[in-house]
Amino acid sequence: MRPLALLVLAVTVAHAQPPTPALIPLPAEVETRDGPPFVMTDATPLVVDPGDAEARRVAGVLAALVGNTVETTPPIVEAAPAGVPAVRLRIDAAAGHGDEGYALDVASTGVDLVASAPAGLFYGVQTLRQLLPARVEYEAALYAPLPVPAVRVVDRPRYEWRGMMLDVARHFFEVEDVERVIDLMALHKLNRLHLHLSDDQGWRIEIPSRPALARVGGRTEVGGGPGGYYTVEDIARIVQYAAERFITVVPEIDLPGHTNAALAAIPEINCDGRARAPYTGTNVGFSTVCVEREETWAFVEDVVASLAEQFPGETIHLGGDEVEELTADQYAAFVTRAQAIVTAAGKRYAGWDDVAHAGLAPGAVIQVWRAQRADVARQVEAAVANGAALVLSPSDRIYIDMKYDESTVLGLTWAGLNGVRDAYDWDPGVLLDVPEAAVLGVEAPLWAETLSTIRDVEFMAFPRLAGVAEIGWTPQTARSWGGYRARLGAFGPRWTALGVHHFRSPEVDWT
Ligand code: TNX
């Protein structure tokens, strides 16, 4: 290049607007500022209000993150030493940011983070984290000061339900794997982890009043592997780990179909009173509990009571999908009674969209997976008119067990190929003809017929799950595929630093 051209290029770059930082999800408002960055070191005090235990705990999340990278962990203090640039983390119920919102101000002289509630403070910390260099994610001390670009963010989520479903029934995933998923969800401000805890191929949760369920039903998985299940202690650990990251665990026991593992464990919930043989294939639709037997209802009562005890969240999901062995009347009667049992246990009933036409009482949550089918869409809209709320999981968009493209080795194709753009570029506000308030949010299901390791899970989830997080968080008017694509490309190094096995989709220019 000629010297003049080089000069022109240098001047142009120097005067360009600071680029939008690679934040996913994109905050509602981000204003990049001129001026030097804030520089974080191990001497940067994290200042919390005296006696605010919640703010101190959230500050601890930031301290631990930075502490991996600098020499010693930044101190958490209740008063800023004079003249030292500090990060202030404040919870002020009167600040007007709602349950999950926050405001973040970064200048070279200091960082101010204010939220109205602990979850908002935590999300503000996740934004600050994403403003730090990607190397902050390495679990090795690489001492170097950490610059944070000068920026002002005012943020809150579009939807209250921003979820992922993990199918631990087709293949079992250890507690550590679930914790890894929770960590990666938290990075993107997701707040619902739906665990699909039972299916034909496995029963994955200890129900103390029915020990055979886990003991027998937990021994199998797709392909004949060893299976496994979570003990009461394991579940308590998962629930606690999630709660520390402001994530609610939504348990699902699939009923009345997808029940072969239970039918193998408890003979008396079969109409002939005989235990079924274990199943390790991948067919669907062939199993059902015996809806005419009182033994079945005693079983449902016991299971729901135990779920209500083990999971503090408000929702219990009872599946309801793909039942081919019952008449429409039998199916509807089952769903009505199952919902009543959940409600009597003090919880909110959720089911797949198959339950939409089964005469739900008001207050049900319907998880919509077949919005592309006109008959299902009309049934769901009618259920909303009758008081149901929706979680949107359109299978032709955000079933992240679908292959990305023809090159994907893992995954299924029945709902089509779900590329990175397909998964991102749609608006939950117009998917169905329902009032805005009826949509609680979005959730990406990850079915695990073809997935058996956490690396498989990561590969299918990333980058698509990040896009789902943005759909659930960012105002529709602030979203565009072009803008997202650029931020996604720049986000890659952070996942790499975290060791996240992700698909380097050709749809994206990766940094
Ligand atoms: C359909 S989606 C199912 C699951 C399968 C999934 C595979 C839904 C409610 N049921 O049983 O695992 O397809 O993509």
Automatic annotation (TrEMBL):
Entry EC no(s): 3.2.1.52
Keywords: Glycosidase, Hydrolase, Signal
Reaction(s) this enzyme catalyzes, per UniProt: Hydrolysis of terminal non-reducing N-acetyl-D-hexosamine residues in N-acetyl-beta-D-hexosaminides
Transmembrane spans: none
Annotated catalytic residues: E322
Domain Beta-hexosaminidase bacterial type N-terminal as annotated: residue spans: 21-155
Family annotation (InterPro entries): Beta_hexosaminidase_sua/sub (IPR025705), GH (IPR017853), Glyco_hydro_20_cat (IPR015883), Hex-like_dom2 (IPR029018), HEX_bac_N (IPR015882)
An example Gene Ontology biological process: carbohydrate metabolic process
Signal peptide limits: 1-16
GO CC annotations, alphabetized: membrane
Molecular function (Gene Ontology), one example: beta-N-acetylhexosaminidase activity
Segments forming domain Glycoside hydrolase family 20 catalytic: 159-475
Similarity remark: Belongs to the glycosyl hydrolase 20 family.
PANTHER family in UniProt: BETA-HEXOSAMINIDASE, BETA-N-ACETYLHEXOSAMINIDASE
Protein name: beta-N-acetylhexosaminidase
Source organism per UniProt: Rubrivirga marina
